[in-house]
Automatic annotation (TrEMBL):
Annotated signal sequence range: none
A Pfam entry, by short name: HSP70
Protein known as: Putative Heat shock protein 70 family
Keyword Oxidoreductase in annotation: no
Originating species: Rosa chinensis
Database matches in PROSITE patterns: HSP70_1, HSP70_2
Parts forming coiled coils: none
Keyword annotations from UniProtKB, A to Z: ATP-binding, Nucleotide-binding, Stress response
Molecular function as annotated in GO: ATP binding; ATP-dependent protein folding chaperone
The family this protein is said to belong to: Belongs to the heat shock protein 70 family.
Amino acid sequence: MTLAAKGEGSAIGIDLGTTYSCVGIWQHHRVEIIANDQGNRTTPSSVAFTNIGCLIGDAAKNQVTINPMFLATKDAGVIAGMNMMRILNEPTTTAIAYRLESLDKKASTIGGKNVLIFDLGGGTFDVSLLKIEDEIFEVKATAGDTHLGGEDFDNRTVNHFVQVFEKKHRKDISNDPKALGRLRTSCERAKRTLSSTAKTTIEIDSLFEGIDFQSKITKSKI
């Protein structure tokens, strides 16, 4: 989704994902992701309405999740006072960013170039094959899995550590929402760490019945 404030100003792009969203802008010859008010480059796609008001992002993550549809997304931009320029799918936006960076580096696409783009999101996995020739983007094929994403990695990791905890301490935490919530948070953090390293350790104080939990996991295990 591409937005611009009414009047003059730069356009921003919003990736409204199933589980996380982010905002980017083209500047300094590259796409830069804008951090939120907590300094994070991504924000949970969650909104919760409570008796104390409306919660957004991390504060609402464990409550109610809302994933707007196409028209709702467009209406939300208008209500926010933005000039809705266009709503684009992920492969197209990625291809545009790829092409812009190629132009900035004065890379040639004479004769055309085939580009395979994959988007492994929080809840879905999409793959597209595009042909880029000059300023023309042609989608040759698309495929994907609407039930495969980062949450599946989280679920497998949580289940793994539930079994590790039970084997080590002979206690089942699968029916304790609080313990599972803390474990899931640590697993999500471990998943991000494993994006750049081969192994990591999770440590949770007093995870269940006062028992501290510590265990290692490798990228290949996930």
